[in-house]
Design goal:
The protein is α/β, with parallel strands linked by helices. The chain has a single domain (about 20-305), classed as Divalent-metal-dependent TIM barrel enzymes (TIM Barrel, Alpha-Beta Barrel). The chain is about 35% helix and about 10% strand. The strands form two sheets. Strands 1-2-3-4-5-6-7-10 form an eight-stranded parallel beta barrel. It has a two-stranded antiparallel sheet with strand order 8-9. Helix 4 packs across helix 5 and helix 8 packs across helix 9 (about 290-305).
């Protein structure tokens, strides 16, 4: 089993009003990047996740200077951040097809550069799909793509976060051992982190509903990649059963994970200060209430009921070098 420990540093404080749990949601950038932060502030969330371009297209329209300026103005709101971005789903850094592989590498580089302009410290990406190729070769391709990106632009400071996956089809990332295999092939492993998605790990077979099961998963993650490398959580319930290998998100507490799994995580002080992002279905409930508001309220209610620490608090990871209000250069 590959084991790669992180050497990440401590994050900066973001104001005395900061909450222990940094809840946010993936929000739309329609009408301008800044609108996502404006909506997050309206929802009274602590952070936000966005796409930095139209996620259905390869082509990226240039960022508008006035939009970037307004984004940074809102990002400087006291107690807000760090923001997170998610890479487009078109990208496949594991592709055995050279044309798609090269296009994916170029697109991911561009998204990292856009994140840097926007002062976004983390860019979440699915490791990719092997398709008909051997898994070992696909892992090598992902690492080679990241190595080339880092080598060609050493000034990039936005950290790619490899996301855990459900293991559907030929997708990589359904185990921490597999993520460690990718990171172990990097020339600069300190530049890459991990994003854990609760729905994905549950569908991959990690039973986080049970305290012992949750602890076992975290211990495995620590052995394989190191807890300091976990820089973001995606909080989603699951429509499908444990070990189903099917990725279907559900509202918090309404799926197969239920409230217990989220209580286990929210009670874990080692992840205080780490962005926790909702990617649950959008829309409104039958009473006309926004589902993001309902899910955020549910998370805050669960967090408030956590009695006593499950573990000793670690040094806050946060976002290295995150300075709201200006791009990271």
């Amino acid at each position: 089993m590959a084991t790669v420990k992180a050497t990440g540093g401590k994050g900066s404080k973001r104001g005395s009003a900061e909450r222990l749990h940094r809840f946010g949601a993936h929000l739309s950038i329609a009408g301008g990047m800044h609108r996502a932060i404006a909506e997050a502030l309206r929802f009274r969330t602590d952070t936000v996740q966005v796409f930095v371009k139209n996620q259905r297209q390869w082509r990226a329209a240039p960022l508008k200077p006035d939009d970037v300026e307004r984004w940074h103005e809102l990002l400087a709101t006291p107690g807000f951040g760090p923001p997170v971005a998610h890479a487009t789903y078109l990208i496949n850094l594991a592709s055995p097809e050279w044309a798609l592989y090269a296009r994916s590498r170029a697109a991911f580089t561009e998204e990292l550069q856009r994140c840097q302009t926007l002062g976004i410290p983390y860019l979440v990406i699915h490791p990719g799909a092997a398709r008909e190729a051997p898994v070992g070769r696909a892992i090598e391709r992902v690492a080679a793509a990241l190595n080339r990106i880092f080598d060609r632009d050493p000034r990039l400071t936005t950290m790619p976060l490899l996301e855990t996956t459900a293991g559907q089809g030929t997708t990589l990332g359904s185990s921490f051992e597999q993520l460690a295999e990718i990171i172990g092939r990097l020339q600069e492993p300190v530049r890459v982190g991990i994003c854990i998605d609760t729905c994905h790990v549950f569908a991959a077979g990690y039973d986080i509903r049970d305290p012992a099961g949750y602890d076992a998963m975290i211990e495995l993650a620590d052995r394989c990649v190191g807890l300091d490398r976990i820089r973001c959580w995606h909080l989603n319930d699951s429509k499908t059963d444990l070990g189903s290998r099917i990725d279907r998100h559900e509202h918090i507490g309404r799926g197969r994970i239920g409230s217990a799994g989220f209580r286990n995580l929210l009670a874990d002080r080692r992840f205080h200060g780490v962005p926790m992002i909702l990617e649950t279905p959008k829309g409104k409930d039958p009473a006309g209430k926004d589902w993001d508001r309902i899910n955020l309220r549910r998370l805050r209610s669960l967090a408030a009921r956590v009695t006593g620490p499950r573990t000793q608090s670690r040094a806050k990871v946060g976002a290295p070098g995150f300075q709201p209000g200006g791009p990271t250069r």
